[in-house]
Amino acid sequence: MPRMKYRSSDVDLMARLMRAEAVGEGKTGMLFVGNVIVNRGVADCLDFTDLRTISDVIYQVQGGNYTFEAVQKGSLFYRRAREVERRLARRNLKYWRQHPAKYSLWYFNPSGPCPSTWYDQPFSGQYKNHCYYEPAAGTCASVY
């Protein structure tokens, strides 16, 4: 059973975002971004209580901006999905989860070292340029 219900159009949308956010970090980096996308879709806590589809997650707006920078600024996001990224997206949707993004709801690419917290959420690890953060203990059981 998949971690989250999806259609082929969801796979394409997720594949596009994974590439736009992490193509420079290879397949593993894109899988970590995919973990965060799916985690937000299954989470029922914090800023993610009303997100139930891949589209809800990817097009979420907070503070007047899309939560994923590539949606707002990235021309790479608006290109067609490629089969390699579609396969990665399906892996995330079906089963793939791994540290440091296994339970993460956030990531970002800082200009320096990864901070120990991000908006009061603990640092779970780093992969290449991205720092990953999971919910503080006891704040989001649905992600674990």
Provide tags for this entry.
144 residues; alpha+beta; four-stranded antiparallel beta sheet; two-stranded antiparallel ribbon; 6 strands
Describe what you observe in this structure:
38% of the residues lie in helices and 14% in strands. With 144 residues, it is of the alpha+beta class. It has a four-stranded antiparallel β-sheet, with helices on one face. A two-stranded antiparallel sheet has the order 1-2. β4 (117-118) and β5 form a beta hairpin. α1 (8-22) crosses α2 and α2 crosses α5. The chain is globular. The model has no long low-confidence stretch (mean pLDDT 96).
Note the topology.
Elements: H1 8-22, H2 26-42, H3 54-58, E1 61-62, E2 65-66, H4 69-73, H5 83-94, E3 106-108, E4 117-118, E5 121-127, E6 130-133
Antiparallel strand pairs: 1-2, 3-6, 4-5, 5-6
Helix pairs in contact: 1-2, 1-5, 2-5
Q: Structural class of the secondary elements?
A: alpha+beta
Number of helices: 5
Percent of residues in helical segments? 25-40%
Order of helices and strands: HHHEEHHEEEE
Rg, Å, rounded: 14 Å
Give the overall shape: globular
Strand composition percent? 5-15%
- Strand line-up across the major sheet: 3-6-5-4
Distance between termini?
Answer: 17 Å
Task: Pick out the low-confidence regions.
Answer: none
Largest sheet: 4 strands, antiparallel
Tell me the total number of β-strands: 6
Average of per-residue pLDDT values: 96
